[in-house]
Amino acid sequence: MSKFPRDNTITLTANERPTAWYNVVADMPTKPEPSLNAANLQELTGPDLEAIFPKVLIAQEVSLERYIEIPDEVQAFYDLYRATPLVRCYRLEKYLDTPAKIYYKYEGANPGGSHKLNTAVAQVYYNKQEGVKRLTTETGAGQWGCAVSMAANYFGLEMQVYMVKVSYNQKPYRRHFMELYNGKVCASPSPYTQAGRNVLAADPNCKGSLGIAISEAVEDALQREDTKYSLGSVLNHVSLHQTIIGQEAKTQIQKADDYPDIVIGCAGGGSNLSGIAFPFVQDKVNGKKVDILAVEPTACPTLTKGKFAYDYGDTAKMAPVCKMYTLGHDFIPSGIHAGGLRYHGMSPLISQLRNDGLIDAVAYNQNQVFDAAKLFAQTEFILPAPESSHAIKAAIDEALKAKEAGEAKTILFCLSGHGFFDMQAYASYMAGDLQDIEFDPKNFGHLPEIK
Ligand SMILES: Cc1ncc(COP(=O)(O)O)c(C=O)c1O
Hints:
The chain is an alpha/beta fold. It contains 17 helices and 15 strands. It starts with 8 loop residues before the first strand and ends in a 21-residue tail after the last helix.
């Protein structure tokens, strides 16, 4: 007989699954500041955004409605893989010898391998509804590019992906995955856009960044009538779609007769953290005691070392200007293996909540994170993505703090994706080749002057 309880996975029936996304803006004590048009730094209007986004997503971006119904076609795709499992880490708990209970919500078992599919399907669906034939996007680590290529192929749209060059070279299998679903992929900075050519002229060896890849994808979308742009994180409508994660998790953890003391997610642009945390932020605003923790790399510490200020969403100043935590739009993070966490900015919703003291943040270096990933793989038998491993590291630290304090804390974290395409990163880690990189304030990028 196993010495561990056999009911470590909590699932939901179709009828228990949420039928609407949760919009945290309805409950935020301070509403997010309006975004600005990058061309003139004036308040952004719906028509400004129509060149790159379909009308329904623009409406979701500024909505104050608390719940927005999930369309049947999107729900039908979710049927393929939702609800995702909520798993109690009995083996990791035992290894740590902690009184804490550790749960993870696993978003890596879906066909795309990460939480990114939750919004990819919704975004492509709304674009199709409005007659869009082709989409452009950026991808960092490649998970978003895979998810959106899959969704575009499902709904019959063409997909052009600008993949940050360092990841393009580190993760060739991600590219083949996208191509299998008819996505067209090029390394960014590329020679195909003015934004890319400008960067290459200044530095032919530039490794790229999410900020540069966004500029290229937006420029491409602006060139063609039949094309719009799709973003995998940061924006309010992306956070909205991801709340399916936290809503499910809340029902699942209630089924286990439990409630988290702390909810943890890694944060690149903030979408999986929004997803797991916003339904709990609602409880927190309504008086419940629950901590929310964002985890980021020391190489790109947007929430722990950035400024809360208006900044461009991309390097070439084409994407909307948002009030957010930022390291400056021309800051290029080092080529760490958690490519999805190499973004200079942060979701304006996460940023506002952080500024209001409703979200805390912590930063870890690469080797600490991979140590945690290895321990997790050896105790819980899932190989985590390097991005998700940041959340694992924080969960382990919280469990050890609970041990020291003798507290039976309940910890919930989002395991946002699997790491099966990240073996090069694991190989470098095992060979002792990973560098720990601290952010140097001298490298802080530029911010626009807002009058
Ligand atoms: C598995 C995984 N987790 C987390 C992230 C970070 O993005 P976000 O902060 O939007 O969740 C990424 C981004 O590529 C990712 O692929």
